[in-house]
Amino acid sequence: MVGSGVRSHLPLLRFLAVLICLHVLLAWGLVAMSRDFNSAGLPPDSWSWTPADSAQASEPPADGWLPYSDKPSHPSNSSLYWMRIPLEPSDSRDPRLFILNAIALSVYDGGKLLYAYDPIDYNHRLNLLYHWNLVPLSTPVPSEIYMLLDDREPHRPQLFVRQTSYGEFVSSLIRKETYAFVLSALLLFSACLALGLYFNRREKLHLYFVLMALCGSYAAIARTFLLQLFWDQPWMSYLELAVFPLGVYGFLGVIIEVFDKKLTATLRGISRIILALSLFSLASAVLLDVKWFGWLLSYPLVAMFLITAAFLFHALWKAYKHRQGPESIWMLAGFFIVTSTALLYVVRTYLTVFFAKMRYTFPILNVLQYDFLSVALLLFLICLVRVILYRFGQMNDRLKQFNQALESNVETRTSELRKREEQLREANVQLAGTMRDTAESIASSIVLEERHRLTGAIHDTLGHSLTATLVQLEAAKRLLPRDPELALSKLGASQQLVRRGFEEIRNSVRLLRDDSSRYDLAEAIHRLIGETARTTGAVIDYRLSPLPDSLSTLQKRVIYQALQEGLTNGLRHGDSRRFDFELTSLAGRLEFRLTSDGRTYSPSEFGFGLKAMSERIADLGGKMIIAPGNPGCVLTLSLPCSPTEELEKGARQA
């Protein structure tokens, strides 16, 4: 323990006193609001009872009535019995009889049935602390009524009966328990805020806060008489008995997350047991018989609660002694409030017979008919909110310190950058001299690249012309002995081909510097195919679709020269005599396909012409494929026909 005497614990005692005063103040206010509702019922001294033979009896017996005061010790005591209760005269227009602590009952006015309820008929399970029956009485109010009761089990709480009117009952119930809906809304709002914090920060503390607040919100509604007025579903209050352990698990999780792991090591194991017990309790509430579920609540659950409370108090006291900071003070004070009220709640809810004896010993417990545990839970959540705000404050302080350190680092880095800037200026001066050398190297590279490209273009054009000329010369050589005139015409055609080749070379050079508006690709293809067929005798079938206007000069040149190279190679190397050519524009791409007969193509390394052509096509973002035909060869090209980034890059390189 830090310090000595009471003085060292003054902050804890002061905050605890504030919480106790708030709790007492709220309790006093709630008791004052419910004073009308909690007025005394009909006096049991005037009641009488007699054992019942059957639950199917339609009218009360005429004799055998005994004073109600000797029922608990009577040898004929059984769960099925008749009650005769005298009523007070009343001029109410809508008289009612408010009945508590009854399971199955039938109410008679003489031989007339006024009201009947059996939970078995509706598949209901009851929490007698919060289930009531409101019996309509005939007018004028009879002098006495008879009730056939079935307690199903012994040791039930004492029957409570009050004579009232419907309007008085509803108004007093609303005054008494409207607070519960407000309290439930506050807890639900707290759960939503904590859930938002969890999604933002992913801390388990906020998730346990959500669980505890949701359980408290549910319990605040389920532990009211007012809920049954709007929705007569006893399962709500019955399941509340099983939800309580889940709230204890959330409470434990909050404590574990707030304090150091070394101080809460044992609680982590207990929390897992509580979670398993909570899930088992929820399943048992639905699946087990009421008797066995009651046994589970009255013994294992109560024992586990007492063990948990002891270990929890030990862990909190260790944390308080370890560091008497705001977190320890607030959590320990909140724990004391919640645990003391929870202990009273457990005794009242799960040990009803023992609580009934306590009420006779301590009459003040008779006025505690409000949801004191939910109020205590709200006070604990206020403590927890203070802890969260305190942590946010600490985080804000750390962020301020980090910001100051960051500003210092920025100043240091700024000075370093200024030094680096001076160094870069000096380096820039040194690099300026080398840039001239680099520019000269780039210029030489561009010249070499352009020479390479011009060589390929001239090779394509000249190779085609020379191939056709060779064909004509070979024909003239063979015809010269037999038909000199025809041989001379072949020689003349060869002369024209040579001249045409020179013209094509000049056109290629002009094409390199002209734009696409001066070059008609379709007309050039028609002319090339016509001249080739005329001079070589080859048959060339072709189909051209409308070409897009966005074709660049470089694209047109590559397509034209690819056709030129394909025809030349087919004639020279494949002895082809028949060609089929197709040029189409589909989905933003140009598709080129040239097939030939002759010798079947065997894949091999490209020659100069094909290699240069494949490089130019790749520069334009396209691809070229040469494959064997059946027989002959198939040349296919695919080029983008829109000004894409790759195409523009290739055009710049060209």
From TrEMBL:
Organism in which the protein naturally occurs: Cohnella phaseoli
Enzymatic reactions: ATP + protein L-histidine = ADP + protein N-phospho-L-histidine
A single cellular component GO annotation: membrane
Coiled-coil boundaries: 403-437
GO MF entry, a single one: protein dimerization activity
Domain Signal transduction histidine kinase subgroup 3 dimerisation and phosphoacceptor residues, every copy: 450-515
The enzyme's E.C. designation: 2.7.13.3
Keyword Coiled coil (UniProt): yes
Entry's transmembrane regions: 12-33, 179-200, 207-231, 237-258, 270-288, 294-317, 329-347, 367-389
Ranges for domain 7TM-DISM receptor extracellular: 181-377
Gene3D superfamilies: 1.20.5.1930, Histidine kinase-like ATPase, C-terminal domain (3.30.565.10)
Entry annotated with the keyword Transmembrane helix: yes
Name recorded for this polypeptide: histidine kinase
Key words, A-Z: ATP-binding, Coiled coil, Kinase, Membrane, Nucleotide-binding, Phosphoprotein, Transferase, Transmembrane, Transmembrane helix, Two-component regulatory system
